[in-house]
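Re: weekly structure request thread

Next one in the queue (234 aa):
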Amino acid sequence: MPRSSLTALLGLSLVLAHVGAAQAAAAGGPTFTGTQSSRARVGKRHGRNVNMTGRVVSDSELRTSPLPPPTGNIHVYSINYKEEIQTNIYNQDGSYSLEAAKEIAHAFRCRRTGEEHEIDPRLLTILSRVYDHFGDRPLELLSGYRFQRKTTSNHFHGTAADIRIPGVRPRDLRDFVHTLDTGGMGVGFYPRVGFIHVDVRPAPSYRWIDNSRSNPDAWDKQPPRGWKRRKLES
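Done, posted below.
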């Protein structure tokens, strides 16, 4: 094949990989297109995590049968604040409890800034189902709300949680959460660190695996520029 044709094909693969990653980022989750080599090259050029692989979930993989109603019970232990809460997200009449929502928002507060944000009730419903399934074991919360520079993150919007459960393999936890997906969920598996990410989002659903080391102090997870100044002036 002429060198000009090879160059054109390589350039096209890089463009496809870049566009695919950009579209996934806009949707709130990672996915990849193109060859493995082009993914690695684009990752190196743009500082992306080349240890991550992800995909869109097909409709055939989603749950179609109705989910049983959860008890509403949630038992959360915050790794960052060494705090523990046990509450029920529902009132006696089945409506969402505002008092429980405030308590959970406090437990899920940003570990860097202490800022609080309402946690999406859909996410709390998922976490209650997880707690019901695995019995009386607290959900260890590694990251809930994050007041951060990357405002497209689901953590920034109070719709995501990074969790693990003592005595439960992260792979088993991930597999169970997959069974709860009726559409509009993101589930990430972090085997090297030992936790899963779960979020609620607009369809489609996403799945990904990240084999990199955890970097909780990455630039995009830092508070917005000028945050300290605003806090001092307030």
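The first helix runs from residue 3 to 27. The chain has a mean pLDDT of 83.
Next request, please.
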